[in-house]
Amino acid sequence: MNLRFLFDRFSLALIATVVLASLWPVAGVAATWFSHLTTAGIALLFFLHGARLPREAVVAGLRHWPLHATVLAATFALFPLLGLAVQPLAGALLTPELYLGVLFLCALPSTVQSSIAFTSIARGNIAAAVVAASVSNLVGVFLTPLLAALLLATHGAMGSPWRAIIDILLLLLAPFVLGHLLRPWLARWVQRRARLLSLTDRGTILLVVYGAFSHAVIEGLWAQVPGRTLLGLVAVACALLALVMGLIWSATRRLGFSRADRITILFCGSKKSLATGVPMANILFAGQATLGMIVLPVMVFHQIQLMVCAVLAQRFAQQVPADDQAGGGSQ
Fold first, then answer.
1. The predicted structure's pLDDT at residue 175
2. In terms of DSSP H, where are the helices of the chain?
3. Where does the chain cross the membrane (predicted)?
4. Contact by Cβ (8 Å): 17, 299
5. CB of 253 within 8 A of CB of 328?
6. Residues 47, 168, 138: CA angle, nearest 5 degrees
7. pLDDT band at 331 (very low <50, low <70, confident <90, very high)
8. What does the alpha-carbon distance between residue 111 and residue 90 come to, in Å, rounded to a whole number?
């Protein structure tokens, strides 16, 4: 496996951003202006997501409701339950603040771009992946704050989930809906500038990560997270991903899904969105010293899921068609 395939430029940029924030954190008046810039960037990010989503794909994909229901169940039910189940392991390896980040991770929606990309490589149901990942993000606007509040209720790390939902509706959903409504006029422009818009997406995420880690570093993040704890976080993230993927693959086989649909559910149901998670954390935990701690598990899980899914997607793509004739096989 090519290391460049496993560690893409964006992953390296994320690492560089954390290093930059650790050495030169933004503070004072500059931090205030930086926060305004980040807010504008987040609104632009979701406006462009709305402009990209083809309405035809939504209409066609919604007919396959069992697949979408399974993805939503994995994303917003299985993940939170497993997040609570791994508490003994997490309690032995992580600080309480990092475990809050793991619980927040479990409440997040699925990824969009990478879920579709890996489904395509693995020869899954691409149209269903587009809809499943997009619906997951739309549902997450409402469910993520409620789930996060429920999971973190005993820790007092969040304020009112209803206020958070209003903030998320204004900052994330409203630009998304506006972008989708303007799609008839923006579709060609968006298609012609796909590379530029991808850079805009990733640049916005880097801005949010830099701001979050700057605040956390000033509050003493790295004094609270030594190397041993980071290794523990990697172990917890790997265990969580392995459990989710194993349960999804087994359950979809028992439920009788086709191989293409099983691949789609596996990639859409086992992933968590960094692009949505970091802006949401910025809203839900604004101004809190734990913000960097909560974002860190999302970043670690993001890289692990990309590496694992890259390997699995290539393996699925190389498998012989006889697997389908045997009823999907056991991979």
1. 85
2. 3-6, 9-23, 28-52, 55-61, 65-73, 79-85, 87-93, 96-106, 113-121, 126-151, 161-168, 174-181, 183-192, 194-218, 221-224, 227-254, 259-269, 274-284, 291-318, 322-325
3. 7-27, 33-53, 65-86, 98-119, 126-152, 164-182, 203-223, 229-251, 263-285
4. no
5. yes
6. 65
7. very low
8. 24
Domains of the chain: 3-316 (1.20.1530.20)
- The letter for the amino acid at 31 is A
Closest CA to 282 of 201, 168, 199: 168
Between CA 217 and CA 53, with CA 161 as vertex, the angle to 5 degrees is: 85
- Residue in the block written with tokens 């609104």: 43
Cα–Cα dist 196/179, whole Å = 17
Tokens encoding 310: 């890259």
Spatial distance between the Cα atoms of 276 and 272, rounded to a whole number of angstroms:
9
For 173, phi then psi, to 5°, come to -75, -45
| Average pLDDT score over residue span 290-319 | 84
Q: What is the tens place of the pLDDT at every residue in 111-143? A: 877 788 788 888 888 878 878 888 888 888 888
CB 115 within 8 A of CB 129: yes
d(CA 113, CA 296): 21
Summarised one tens digit per residue, pLDDT across range 73-94 is 999 999 999 999 888 887 788 8
Q: How far apart are CA 278 and CA 296, in angstroms?
A: 10
Dihedral sign from CA coordinates of 66, 319, 303, 233: positive
Distance from C-alpha of 260 to C-alpha of 324, rounded to nearest angstrom: 9
